[in-house]
Design goal:
The complex is a heterodimer of chains A (about 500) and B (about 425). Chain A is of the alpha/beta class. Helix content of chain A is about 45%, strand content about 15%. Chain A is built from 14 helices and 12 strands. The longest helix of chain B is centred in the last third of the chain and has 22 residues, at about 305-325. The relative contact order of chain B is 0.12. Classes of the chains: A alpha/beta (about 500), B alpha/beta (about 425). Chain B: Belongs to the GRAS family.
Chain lengths: ~500, ~425
Amino acid sequence: MHGTLELIHPTEQWDCTPINFPVTHHGSERQFAGAELSDFMEHVARQLSDNSENTADGFSMESLSNEAFTPSTGEYRPRKLARTYHHTSGSDGCGHAEDLQWINGTQSENVSTMTYKNNRSNDHDQQGLSLITLLMECAVAISVDNLEEANKMLLELTQVASPYSPSCAERVVAYFSKAMARRVMSSCLGGTMLSPLVQSKSILSAFQAFNTISPFIKFAHFTANQAILEAFHQRDRVHIIDLDIMQGLQWPALFHILATRPDGPPHLRMTAMGTSYEALEETGRQLSGFARRLGLSFEFHPVARKPGEVDPAMIQTRRGETVAVHWLQHSLYDAIGADWKTMRLLELIAPRVITLVEQEMPHSGPFLDRFIGSLHYYSTIFDSLGATLGCEDVNRHKVEHWLLSREISNMLAVGGPTRSGDERFGSWRTELMRRGFAQVPMSGNSMTQAQLILNMFPPTHGYTIQQGDGTLRLGWKENGLYTASAWTSPRLLR
Amino acid sequence: MDITLQAPELHYFTLSQRQQQSHEQENMQNPNHQQQQHQLAVDSGGDPSASGKWAEKLLRECAKAISEKDSGKIHHFLWMLNELASPYGDCDQKLAYYFLQAFFCKATESGERCYKTLISVAEKSHSFESARKVTLKFQEVSPWTTFGHVASNGAILEAMEGETKLHIIDISSTYCTQWPMFLEALATRNDETPHLRLTVVVTAGAGGSVVKEIGQRMEKFARLMGVPFEFNVVSGFSRLGELKEEDFGLRDDEAVTVNCIGALRRVGVIERSEFLRMLHRLRPKVVTVVEEEADFTSNMDEFTICSEECLRFYSIFFEMLEESFVPTSNERLMLERECSRSILSVLACEGDGGGECERREKGSQWCERLAGDFSPMSFNDDAVDDVKALLRRYRAGWSLLPAQGDASGLYLTWKDEPVVWASAWKPS
């Protein structure tokens, strides 16, 4: 429960005229000493997307024959030959990864330009970065359907990279190669149309751990709550529709502030959408109990459907009530269903405010785009966890394995995180704008909320808040990860 | 949209064209059809991993489907395993992951190639330091290997009582970690410290530099202990079955011991009888044999039974590893990866590759084999006391069990399951 964080009561009228804020950077001004994976990643990612068009032609389109995995390493046709990795088992492991030898002469030029800036002496980092390079080669192979070559590289990657390494890069490689191996296997099995299995209990537990060790979830919750509070200003009958409630960690804090509002508490209705009716009922019980203790008049409606699959008639809005719709985007499972149907639902509901928190990486598009985007994204998160927690930390492992690894698997899966092949919007913000929703800039109070959250995490950390285009973006070392924005329905503006 | 791959023509494994088409049609018309697909093995709605021990059930069904060549079911189970498996998760997930790999290779007949690649990767990426570190850490947290060492050392010391020139032929894979305590015992036991010649048998894979380092360390340690010491290496062959008496350069005045720790399983199944006869011809005073308690030999040609046994053994092993190491241990990860290679070779490779498969046999089975040329020696009280003292140093769950009936020797048990077998033999 977020007891310690107070939302701020708005004192002025809710203003939804869009203002273009200049992009400013807030948060700790730490000079980072290099050795950041994400830095290197950006550099290489750029290289890769520049090269990908060229290299794609360079691969022969080997059609898969009966010999799915034809003979051994002798006929391995690598663009480089990886020399010995000395696997470091333990924090004082010795040996260092020898440099990668490049067979193809032209590649060696790319290597030198890709040479990591600071040339840190840390052996683990060195090994991690060599592995990243192999990982990227593998991704290119997958993107051109050269599964045979990809598989060979994966056999190597999955045997060498450790998710417990002191090197964040190596941990990232361990999980990415696992995800890619899973994808290659599912490609071979061809069962792409089967709906994925969701291990709810472990996900929820890991989600809670993530909430504890990292500010991202709290950022999403509190900035959204602030925007909702402002939209509910002087309204007596309010209705929150949470498109993917999970355990509803977000809401107690908002309940508290609504219950103690100077102009008296509103009657609050909540429509909660989610994966399983049982889980929704449990969440409902928790929230109802909490509301009761606060003396808040509360109704809870569980809807065990995805927004993109629900019959709009099941979402009932009453005349005179103020509606807020909230969505925290993630890639743990497909929470939404068909994007365009969800958009239609939003248009029908015509809420006063839509609070949206998006992950800054492409959820759709070709595999390689998703690979590069998610590699950058998750490297950043892994870096942020590694900066604060030791490599033996059990919570860190829990989050990396049960949450982040799962998202990575979904991001790289055939068909992307929806796993269903539905068309996805590139960016919800863009789409909302296209459909005529008006952006409500995140207020100064929301910004204050965000900063308060960052203060909960020691100031030596590199979390950064960027404010721009009416949005608030929380990231690590200026790599934005989650963007919070708010929108209002076009119908209400008339 | 991604390029969805055409499943390659896999031996007896693809859905037939017609089956596949009808699947896709159904999926397009009825999105709820997807849910029905999972009813085959799902216990609780949507989350099959919610019930414990789900991996065993799923793997068992999958093995059955493979032996029945039911491609639809194989497809289905492999898909589910692929969804749920992870090499970094809990025991169920790990078993699922490594067995999935083996089953997939089995179904696509790519076991040998996959295994070769894995071996070459392992050789490239493991330095002497890292391998030794793993061994030592394992010995620190679990008596799995030290049990055999202590029992064998006890038997050797007893058999070598009064001898002045000892020649130990060591065929094992624990980087000579057995010998420091043996050297210590030699140095402290007798008034006149005997001379020890240690011959280490190395098959091609281990790498020359590794053995050299080991030799240097041993020589140093022996000097420290004041034990006259000689270190030899026998190498240059690819299979243990190729070994001959002449390779050991036996001398007339020495008392020979042959120490086989996890060695016999590395001898090709059909070569085992001859190998033991060869050992007999060395005229050893004692042969110590330590093996893991599993049978991958008698069921070599019966896939479901062999899978079942594999599953039984590795479930125990993985569980033991999980309880012995910290959750984020790299050493444990490396041991698990080693297991994955074993599982792959046993289940997905034809025959036993001249011993590469490491087809284990149980203590009772080895006893039958050894009975031809050897008779059992019991461990004396000192040796048994040493083992008991050893077990007390570890967490609860470990115990001793003397062999019953026709079998002889001593078992190490983990939660009352016999897991390692140690025995001593003299030529009859």
